[in-house]
Each structure stands twice: as C-alpha cells, then as structure tokens.
Design brief:
The chain is mostly helical. The chain is about 50% helix and about 0% strand. It has one domain. It is globular, with a radius of gyration of 16 Å. The N and C termini lie far apart (about 40 Å).
C-alpha cells in the first residue's frame, strides 16, 4: 500500500470515527498529484523557520519514538510496500523554493531513497493521529472504526498506526520532528482530523501552528483552501 493510500485510509477512518463534519460536508481534499493541496503547500514553505523552537532537519529519530524498530526494522516494515534498504544519509538542503526531499515524497514522486518516503509517511500519519486525539478522547469504539478503514493494509501497517494511537499527545514533540519545509503539510493533515467543536481542539491547532512557525494568516489560508472553518476571527 502506497504512501498516499495509507494516509487516505487513515484519514477516512478518523473522519468516520470522530465525525469530522467539515470533511463529511465538503469531502476530503485532493492529497496527491499535481495541483493537490499537499503539492501546493510543499512548493515553497512560508513558515518562520528561524523563529521555530529547536527542531530536527531529519526524521531519523521518529522511528524509535513510535516503535518503528519492531515493524520490520529501519523501514517500518515496508510501510510503502517497497523494498527495504539501509537508512539513506540526509541530503543537503536545496533551494528554499523547491523544499526538502520529504515534500517530493508527500506528493507521491518516486525517490531514490525509500527511507525518506517512509519517514515522511510516518510523520504525516503521526500528525493526523495525534490531532484525532487532541480532544483527549479516542475510545475503543472510535479506534475500532478507524482501524476498520485500513482496508488492504498489511499487519505491519496496522500495528504501526495502532502504536501511534498509544503515544501521548505532544505538540512540542511533534513539531520538533518536523523538518523545515514540511510545516504546512503537517498542519494541513492535522486540521483535517479535527472538527473544531471544542476548545481543546482549537487550542491544539493554535499550539501546533505556533510551534511550526505559522502565523494566523497562514493558518486561515490553509483552512480556506481545505474548506475548513477558520481558526482565527
């Protein structure tokens, strides 16, 4: 199962489990290919990279935080369904207008480093699952509904998502895992998993935006593009 397929299936499960009304009303935004939201948001990040709290420029530490070593080694058990390989060295940063290698992985381009694709998938899945738990509630019934929509996921993929749901909600920890250039994409998938019907959920998105270096105007613009009610008046 590919990156976008995995993410989309988890997203559908969250929408059904949590009753996310804006997605039920407007449908899930296109998340892959030319012209998709993740594509456009990844072209040139406008986040305040210098003003962000300390964060990693690679995602290597993410695996240990969600138990990835137990899911088929360094490649999370082949989360993307491709061949596994040793971790690739972190590529040097390119021009800001092109974004990091992870942006290419998000929009579905084939990369020479399977590990980079896997880590980008892991980060987006972690962001979406954490957002679903932002109101402090993800009971057994909701978890079951989410997992029922994993479709043709492998046992390893299902185990990975299940382990994500066992992790505590940690905005600062999540933001620290987000490399420069992925701020808007991580915020988008988080907002898609939230119904904004509680103060806790609105506070979670506010705290996440601040930790990612996204100002109120940027946040409301992402909401507008995704047909989500604005976070700020």
């Amino acid at each position: 199962m590919g990156l976008v397929s995995t993410l989309s299936k988890v997203a559908l499960g969250i929408v059904i489990a949590k009753g996310v009304s804006h997605v039920q009303r407007n449908g899930m935004p296109k998340l892959s290919g030319p012209g998709s939201l993740l594509d456009s948001l990844g072209q040139n990040s406008k986040a305040d990279h210098a003003g962000r709290a300390p964060h990693s420029n690679s995602l290597g530490g993410l695996l240990s935080k969600v138990g990835g070593a137990g899911l088929g080694g360094t490649a999370l058990g082949g989360l993307l369904g491709g061949p596994q390989s040793p971790p690739a060295p972190t590529p040097p940063p390119g021009p800001a207008s092109k974004g990091p290698v992870f942006n290419q992985a998000i929009v579905g381009h084939v990369l020479p480093e399977p590990q980079s694709e896997t880590l980008a998938a892991a980060l987006l899945l972690k962001a979406m699952v954490q957002a679903a738990m932002a109101d402090g509630v993800l009971d057994d019934k909701e978890r079951d509904k989410l997992m029922q929509h994993m479709g043709d996921a492998t046992d390893e993929e299902i185990e990975f998502v299940s382990r994500l749901m066992d992790q505590p909600v940690d905005v600062a920890g999540l933001a620290a895992d987000v490399p420069d250039g992925m701020e808007e994409q991580v915020y988008l998938v988080s907002a898609l998993a939230i119904d904004l019907d509680s103060r806790a959920e609105a506070q979670y998105l506010h705290d996440l935006a601040a930790a990612l270096g996204l100002n109120e105007s940027m946040v409301n613009d992402i909401h507008r593009q995704a047909n989500i009610p604005p976070l700020y008046a």
